[in-house]
Each structure stands twice: as C-alpha cells, then as structure tokens.
Write a structure and sequence with these properties.
This protein has 20 helices and 34 strands. It is α+β, with helices and mostly antiparallel strands. Helix 14 (519-535) crosses helix 16. The chain is elongated, with a radius of gyration of 38 Å.
C-alpha cells in the first residue's frame, strides 16, 4: 500500500534522558534524528529531530523526537507544540524518572489527548523486572490522559515489540480527528537553516490553516515578509500543506538571520503579536508551593519562550493543583490565539510549574480583581461561538473586529467568522461601522459613543450659547485618539438619522439647541444693530462697533456672530459688518440702475452709496456672491437674482 499523509498525524516523543527515544525512532523509521556533531559525541539529544513513519494502514506519520535532558526541556516544549499523539518512552531497567514525569505533565498541559508507552530496553531485564516496570508506569499514568493507554515492551537492539508498536500507533493515528485546512494559517517555527541552492528554510508543525507555494507570508513577532518559494512534506515537494503536517517552507526574500525558533509564519495581516494575554492557568500538584500574584516566570507558547509576569485576577496566590484566571504580561512580543495551550516554567531552579489555555490574546490591562472581568473570561473560554463573539466585541470596545480578527479570536474559518458577524448584526448585538473595512462594533459601544457625543455638544452649547454649533473636525478631536475618525463619523451619522443631532455645513449641534441671548446680551445686540444701521454703507468693524457701544471687542464678538448667524448682519471678508436692511436697500437700487444702464462699474456703486473704494469693493463682492450681479471685465451685468 502506498503511504499517504492525507490525514496528517504528528507524534512526539517524551521521556527521560537515555531512555532510548532516539534509538527507538531510528529503529521505527530508519532515520537517525541526532544530526549535530555534539549530539554524536555526547550521545544525548540536544535539539529537536524529525522523521517519518509509514504505517501498515498506509497512513504516514510525522515524528518529532525531543531531548530528554532537564537542561533542554524548553526544546522539548517547542517540539511538543502541535503534536497529536505522544510516545512516552520509559526504560525498563530504570523505570519512571524525573523527566518522565515532567514530560508527561507538559504533554498534559499542552492538551495532548492520546498516546502510548514504550517500555524501552526490555531486552536488558528479566520478565519479573519488566512486570515491576509495568506497574511503576501504570501508577504514574493513573488519572492522566494516558491511563489505560497501550504499553508495549520494545527493544531497539533486538527489534522485539517494534511491529506491535507500529500496529498500536496505526490504530491511534486512525482515531486522530482531522484538523481542517480552512482555519487561520499558522506555522510555529522550530528550526531555521540555509540549504544550498534553495536559501532560507523554516520547519514546523502546521497547527492550523493551509499554505501554498507562491503565497506571500510574514513572520511574527518580527513582521518580516517573504514569499513561499517551495513547500516540502517529509522531503517531498508539494504545492500545498495543511494543518497537522510537518512542513518545510523555502522562503524567498528573507535572510536566515532574520528568523529564529519561536517565530510564527502567517499570511500577511492575519494576526498581530501581543505582549499580554488573558489566560486560564492551572498549577501542577507537583509545583510544591503556591504561585503568587505578580510572579515572574517563563511562558512557552507555540515554539516561543518569553519572560512574563503572572497577574492573578481572582486571588492573591494559586495553590498546587488549583486553577484560576490570570493575565500574563511580557516585555517581549509573542504570538498567541485563544485556545492555544501554554506552559509556565520557573527561572531558577528551571522546572515546570503549570500551564493552561489562552482566552484573550489582545486584552486591555486589568487592574485589581473584579468579578465582571472573570465572568466575561468564562464566557470567552466556554461560551458558544456566537456568545464568544459578542463578548469579544464588548471587550474590544472602540477597536471593534473585522472578519479576520474574528477568525483568530473565535477560532473559526473566515466564512464562519463572516456568518457570525452577520448574525450579530441581525440580532442587534453588533453594528457595521465601516462597510469597506467590514469593521463591526458592539451596539453598546456605539451607544456609549453616541451618549458621549451628545454630552460633548451639550457642554459646548452650555459654554457657547451664542455659537450655532461645534466644527465637525473639532468634535472628532475631542474623542480619544484611539477612537477612529471613521467611527466618530458613523456615530454622528446615526445621531443625525435619529434626529438628535443636526449638521449645518461643517458645524454640528444638538437638534434641540437654539441660539439664545441673555438680558445683558440683548442690550449689546440692540446697540450693535443701532451702530451698524447708523453707519449705513460705511459699515463698522468689530472694534468700531465695540467702541460705539462702550464695550471691548472680545465681549461683543459672540453677539456679532449671533447676529451674523441670525441674518441681521452680514460680515465681509474684510471684517465689515453691514446691516441686512442696508444691503437690501443696495440690491433694490442696483437692480433699478442695471435696468437703466445694462452694466455698472465701481464709480456707479460709489455714486449710489456715497462711499469710498474701501467700502465699494466689499459691496460689489457681496453683489457678486449673492448673484445680483455677474462680473464681466471691469463691469457688472445683471445676475440671476436681479433678472428674477
């Protein structure tokens, strides 16, 4: 039967140093996964190794061989990211050892659900000792995901048990659920190297989505962009790789020095790195002592390792075997998505403390311990997709979500993300605030911004009762910077549609606002109108009006603006204030003169008004602007308004 990897399955080894993991893999596959000179010289595995195994059913299994030495547990964690099954190797002549336990704990924390145990070096012990080893392992596995799993005595030296082991692996592989290829493409990188004739190559276990030859990709957290020159699976060139497969990508346009283990390859713009994540954390019973609030530890997620502070959200300390809510904060950027599993390890002595699952990969910084925060996190972790989307829209606030961000947050395909967003809009829980960008916001967030806009306008009207409104652009600047102009525009549009706000040109006001004068302002208004009417065609400036009524210019400016808005005065660009009656009189006289002469000039206006050129030019510009006249060279002829 021809081997196939149409149902990708990845197996990871685990176990104490010198318990025969690498030898077993070599016997199973014919591949020596120890490729480094130092590994050969020292006889121990230091780096991750990779091999393939063709199973009797025709399935092809990828194998990640991990180091067993306690100094290289961080490499083991990187290798375990994305595996479907674990092969726990326990030497029959030594039994359960420290890294046997720690590796099993790490696999548990990373969410591995199935696997088996290989009792290696079984040729070195007699049947009675082998039975003791079985009992030792069975005791270790009680209450774990490997309780009741197949336990196969094997010998890499004699080949005993190898075929039985393959049969058991085959049976397990056929039970591994398919991951699907329509999710968000993510490849955590566990190896970077240069291959002669090809250039930069990265490898990893594809944990979600799919990638094709020719795709544009980028890496997180560095943001380096590249093009996929080639895709290989088990050394064979392919056009496409899907979730669950061990993949090698040949990347063009990027140097090997720009990449490292811990990077994640994605499609450009599909995901952003973070420095914080809200998590559900569990402390191992073997942790020994409580994890205190603000403890400093190492976070292992995907193939990346970063230092973090663990801010507990529901208690002051987390006891061994307990689970709780926390926010992990790092000075370094890292890549994670909700539902990703992680491991926490102490700095010194280096040991595994616990782990858990990412709940929100772009949270706000939480302060204090508030029940509403943890209640929402419970929905984000355990709710149905629609409930989780509503909660994510709520916590994202003014940032909102587009379909790709929804895909990453809720853990669905892009089509499913769009469907969920549409359902949220139909139910009234969400609003489409930007159709071009497909950005959605929670309805309560938009409602809050509407209330804030009305409050801002209310305060402006209170402070400026004689101004007809606030400039639209000025109103936008009164919202925090992180509120996008497009969102403010959407909010104003809704308020206009609701009849709560009116927009006059570039000025916005509350619909219930009317210009009003105080008793003192009313006296100033009468004085201004008397002064303007008295001056006639020799209209005053603001300073001259103020002097005429015994006021300061700044004091009369609001009332002048009120009169201009009200139409009682007309302000020219030169700063003259003409009474409306004066200009209406001018229009009547100019229409008569145009009937008589057909065309008029500056001298005619001077003659009509008895003024100098200083006032004549602004008057002519007013006539042109109001379409009483139309300029032709140095003369004016009747405009539409005069003809009508």
């Amino acid at each position: 039967m021809t081997p196939t990897d149409s149902r990708p399955v990845t197996l990871g080894t685990a176990g104490h140093i010198d318990h025969g993991k690498t030898s077993l893999v070599k016997t199973l596959t014919g591949t020596d996964t120890d490729r480094l000179r130092e590994e050969k010289e020292r006889g121990i595995t230091i780096e991750l190794g990779f091999a393939r195994l063709d199973l009797p059913s025709g399935l092809r299994m990828s194998i990640v061989d991990v180091p067993g030495h306690e100094r290289f547990v961080k490499n083991m964690v990187a290798g375990a990211a994305g595996i479907d099954l674990v092969l726990l190797a326990v030497a029959a002549d030594e039994g359960v050892m420290p890294q046997t336990r720690e590796h099993l704990e790490i696999c548990t924390l990373l969410g591995v659900k199935a696997g088996l145990v290989a009792l290696t070096k079984s040729d070195l012990v007699d049947p009675d000792f082998l039975e003791l080893a079985r009992e030792d392992v069975a005791s270790l596995l009680e209450g774990t995901f490997l309780e009741g799993a197949p336990l196969v005595p094997v010998s890499a030296t004699t080949g005993a048990g190898i075929e039985e082991l393959k049969t058991e692996l085959d049976a397990l592989a056929r039970e591994v659920p398919a991951r699907g290829s329509k999710g968000l493409f993510r490849l955590p990188v566990d190896r970077v190297f240069t291959m002669r004739g090809f250039g930069t190559v990265v490898t990893g276990t594809l944990i979600s989505g799919a990638v094709r030859k020719g795709d544009d990709v980028s890496t997180l957290p560095g943001g380096v962009t590249a093009k996929v020159r080639g895709v290989q699976i088990h050394g064979e060139a392919r056009d496409r790789a899907v979730a669950g497969q061990r993949v090698a990508l040949n990347l063009a346009g990027v140097d090997v020095s720009d990449l490292a283990r811990g990077d994640t390859v994605i499609h450009p713009g599909a995901l952003a790195p973070t420095r914080m994540a809200d998590v559900r954390v569990e402390l191992l019973p073997s942790a020994g002592k409580p994890l205190k609030d603000r403890a400093r530890v190492r976070l292992h997620v995907g193939t990346q390792e970063v230092p973090v502070v663990v801010a507990l959200l529901d208690r002051d300390e987390l006891g061994p075997g307990e689970a709780g809510w926390a926010q992990v904060r790092s000075p370094e950027w890292f890549c994670a998505c909700p539902a990703d599993r992680f491991v926490l390890r102490a700095f010194s002595p280096a040991r595994t403390l616990g782990g858990g699952v990412v709940v929100d990969h772009h949270p706000k910084r939480h302060r204090g311990k508030r029940s509403e925060v943890t209640e929402r996190l419970a929905v984000l972790l355990e709710g149905e997709p629609g409930e989780r989307l509503a909660a994510f829209l709520e916590v994202r606030g003014v940032q909102g979500l587009d379909p790709r961000q929804t895909q990453a947050a809720v853990g669905v395909t892009l089509d499913q993300a769009r469907t969920l967003l549409q359902a949220a809009v139909r139910s009234g829980a969400a609003l489409v605030t930007d159709r071009k960008a497909q950005r959605h916001h929670h309805a309560d967030v938009v409602s809050g911004l509407e209330d804030e806009a009305l409050a801002l306008l209310g305060r402006f009207h209170e402070a400026n009762p004689l101004k007809r409104g606030l400039g639209v652009e000025e109103l936008r600047t009164k919202f925090p910077r992180y509120v996008s102009p497009r969102l403010v525009e959407f909010v104003l549009q809704r308020l206009v549609e609701q009849g709560q706000v009116a927009v006059d040109g570039e000025v916005v006001r509350r619909a219930d606002f009317t210009l009003r004068l105080s008793a003192d302002d009313e006296d100033v208004r009468r004085g201004i109108l008397e002064a303007a009417r008295a001056r006639g065609y020799q209209a005053p400036t603001a300073e001259e009006v103020a002097a005429a009524i015994g006021q300061d210019a700044p004091a009369v400016e609001p009332v002048l603006q009120f009169l201009v808005t009200d139409g009682a005065l007309v302000r020219t660009k030169e700063g003259y204030f003409f009474a409306r009656e004066t200009l209406e009189d001018l229009v009547r006289r100019v229409v008569v003169l145009l009937d008589e002469k057909g065309a008029i000039g500056v001298a005619d206006i001077k003659g009509l008004t008895g003024t100098t050129r200083k006032y004549t030019i602004p008057l002519l510009e007013y006539l042109d602007t109001t379409r009483v006249t139309v300029r032709k060279g140095d003369l004016r002829v009747a405009g539409p308004r005069a003809r009508s």
